[in-house]
């Protein structure tokens, strides 16, 4: 039989196993756009939580140092330096120091380093012998 006008086979007459399936380019682009928007919102929130967790570790270290200062002072005439306390607390995100050391005063300080320095408003955490913690919002 020779074909003249109706030789084309329409896809609607093909069996289901031969129909083309998949996603169009437009569907893929819309999906990628949605993922991009979600990621642009979620990533900064994630970063804030990471900074907050690292800050919590620094606060824990400062409180440990504060307790060690009081123990040191109970046995010595003045408060001690970080080296005197001998705790060996280390962090990739903070450096610790003890200043204003005397028989009645001390100030412990944690200073953010590296990426943690982007912890706006909480770059430096301090606590003293009166349990005054600054900045107060960062200690919550």
TrEMBL record:
Cellular component annotations (GO), alphabetically ordered: type II protein secretion system complex
Signal peptide: none
Single biological process term from Gene Ontology: protein secretion by the type II secretion system
Pfam families, per database record: ComP_DUS, N_methyl
InterPro entries in alphabetical order: Bac_GSPG_pilin (IPR000983), N_methyl_site (IPR012902), PilE-like (IPR031982), Pilin-like (IPR045584)
Alphabetic keyword roster: Membrane, Methylation, Transmembrane, Transmembrane helix
Residue ranges of the TM segments: 23-46
NCBIfam families: IV_pilin_GFxxxE (TIGR02532)
Protein name from the UniProt record: Type IV pilus assembly protein PilE
Organism, scientific name: Pseudidiomarina planktonica
């Amino acid at each position: 039989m020779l074909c003249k006008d109706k030789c084309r086979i329409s896809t609607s007459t093909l069996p289901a196993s031969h129909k083309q399936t998949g996603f169009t380019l437009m569907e893929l682009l819309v999906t990628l756009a949605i993922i991009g928007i979600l990621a642009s919102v979620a990533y900064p929130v994630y970063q804030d939580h990471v900074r907050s967790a690292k800050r919590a570790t620094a606060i824990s270290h400062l409180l440990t140092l504060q307790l060690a200062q009081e123990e040191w002072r109970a046995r010595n005439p003045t408060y001690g330096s970080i080296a005197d306390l001998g705790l060996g607390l280390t962090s990739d995100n903070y450096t610790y120091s003890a200043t204003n050391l005397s028989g009645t005063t001390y100030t412990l300080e944690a200073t953010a380093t590296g990426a943690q320095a982007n912890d706006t408003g909480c770059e430096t955490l301090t606590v003293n012998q009166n349990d005054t913690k600054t900045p107060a919002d960062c200690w919550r």
